[in-house]
User: Fold this.
Amino acid sequence: MSAVWVWVENRGGEIIAVGKEAIGAARMVADELGEDLVGIVFGHNVADIATAAFDLGCDEVIGCDDETLDKTRIEAVGPLLVGQIKEHEPAAFIIGGSTRGRDVAAWVAADLDLGVVTDAVSLEVDGDVVKATRPVYAGKLLATAFAKSSTQIVTLRSRAFPQAESTGNTGSADWIDAMVDEDDIPTKVVGFEGKGNTVSLTDASIIVSGGRGVGGPEGFGPVRELADVLGAAVGASRAAVDAGWIPYDHQVGQTGKTVSPDLYIANGISGAIQHQAGMRTSKIIVAINKDGEAPIFKLAHYGIVDDLFKVLPALTAEFKKRL
Amino acid sequence: MKVVVCTKQTPSTTAVFSVNNGAVSWEDSGGKPNVVNPWDEYAVEEAIRVKENHGASHAIALTMGAPDSQEALKTCLAMGCDEAILVSDPSFAGSDTLGTARILAAALEKIDGAKVVIFGKQAIDGDTGLTPVQVARKLGWTPVTYVSAIKEIKGHTITLERLLEDGKETVTTDLPVVISVVKEINEPRYPSFMGIRKANRATIPTWSATDLDVNGGVGAAASQADWSHVYSIPAREGSVEIIEGDSVEEKVAALVDKLFEEKVI
Assistant:
């Protein structure tokens, strides 16, 4: 019998959201396969992370606490994981949808000749096989995908799975030694500039977005005011970004960010296929547009056909009253 | 020092897809159905800038794909790459990222003096983003992903800025490197008139399986990942509920009621 492993991505002394999502998804896979769930906790000063991994539902934890693992540098993490997977041969290894997580998946798969399914939005277990539904062709089509190798590696789309919740489980981790000395790691992290308190698009549970219909940079004023009241991130269509009304890091769509918030409010966005590719997995979509024929209304759950410059301030005022 | 940009030909961003009996096809009524992978345009631009600003002697574009991928390579030449190489063989068809990585690594080993290899962050067809790190592993080089700036190349050391979910990380590492770049890194140039003329006259060499010393399995049979079952996205069930009302205030109040009921606030 071989267990299901999960990458417990942690930063600043906490398991981050994609890590909790991965534990939740991996727990389901382990239960379906009738296997134990093993949390992989690598980092520096991560004793509390191991405790938290047990609490979130891991049956076992393999941990490594070492300064070289502090910034999740792939050259420190990769060889250690490769060695562990060789030794234990897990049935599956589930990794959250982050930049660092993808690097981990790619490295391990390259060294051990394993198959990877990236960007899963749902998972099911069919016999011994973990089958994932994943968007392909930039979200214009879907595929059922699986890895054919002995250890099946799956990365998840961020926010596609609910976060694991506290179970009250406890345990003691199996602590292993790091494999790579600092002197043997060519890559050095010499600076880091955090994003601060702004809500990032991919992590946001609510996104308020503006498109061509907002008419100019000042048109994002009412968009931001609504976002502030809701604690939401501000998104934009490519048309608004290309016009220079808002920086690129707000762009949602095929050549921007792919998002799956609980609530996506599209203001003055017609809903081109490239925009839809980036936000169609949102749980509830609201469209506000003067043009009742705009394609966005085919995707939206709720719509208001009216002038967004009247609707948005009214919506902001209404939420202020009720939140 | 040479810089190599690995690009891929993909469907255009405006392509419309259909699936018939599991076979995927696409067309683009407004333009070319196949283009240089949009994320790779930033990689091509950055390769040219490494030559212009960081002293590389050559910027070389490398593509693995079907023979018609020549078209994408011509775009790279027109933008300003000095050379283009197509890696193409029927036995390569159906390779997963790992097979692709083995083939590209074998091709890169044939290019003397390649020290910096640049990829776009992912391709808009498979969208895996795995290949850059896997090529680095096959070469034994250092991978650095999601690069938003090449700050400096000095001797054997390169300084890079990465764009991660939580912020910007600056790293230094040793050459040779394989990097993947994000859109924030630059503004790709348009091909010049002279560049297009040069590209149209260029003969692009094709390297086949016999030209390369590929280490390990390639093609569909060796693929460790299966995503052959592709289908159209089911239409959303139900249709939009347009919120009506006599005034904006009434509509807004009704919408807010609905959103509280949906428990998304």
